Amino acid sequence: VESTQSMIRIVGLSATLPNYLQ
Q1: For 1-22, how does the pLDDT look when each residue is reduced to its tens digit (9 = 90+)?
Q2: Cα-only R_g, the chain
Q3: DSSP state, 1?
Q4: What is the pLDDT of residue 2?
Q5: Which 3-state string (H, E, C) describes the chain?
Q6: Cα separation of 21 and 5, whole Å?
Q7: Per-residue pLDDT, 4
Q8: Pairwise CA distance, residues 14 & 2, whole Å
Q9: CB-based contacts of 7: which residues, under 8 Å, 6+ apart?
Q10: 2-12: string of b/e by CB count within 10 Å (b at 16+)?
Q11: 13 closest CA partner among 1, 5, 2
């Protein structure tokens, strides 16, 4: 479960950073 949460947080940050920059 921890691995899934980590991936979700990483993916969320990766998806949020580009959107914020644009």
Answers
A1: 788 999 999 998 888 887 777 7
A2: 10
A3: -
A4: 81
A5: CHHHHHHHHHHHHHHHHHHHHC
A6: 24
A7: 92
A8: 18
A9: none
A10: eeeeeeeeeee
A11: 5
Q: Give the span between the Cα atoms of 10 and 17, in whole angstroms.
A: 11
Helix (H/G/I), strand (E/B), else coil: 20: helix
Within a 13 Å sphere around the CA of 7, how many CA atoms are in the beta-carbon half?
4
Distance CA 22, CA 2 (A): 31
Task: Give CA–CA dist 19/3, Å, rounded.
Answer: 24
Q: What is the pLDDT of residue 8?
A: 92
Q: How far apart (Å, rounded) are the C-alpha atoms in residues 4 and 22?
A: 27
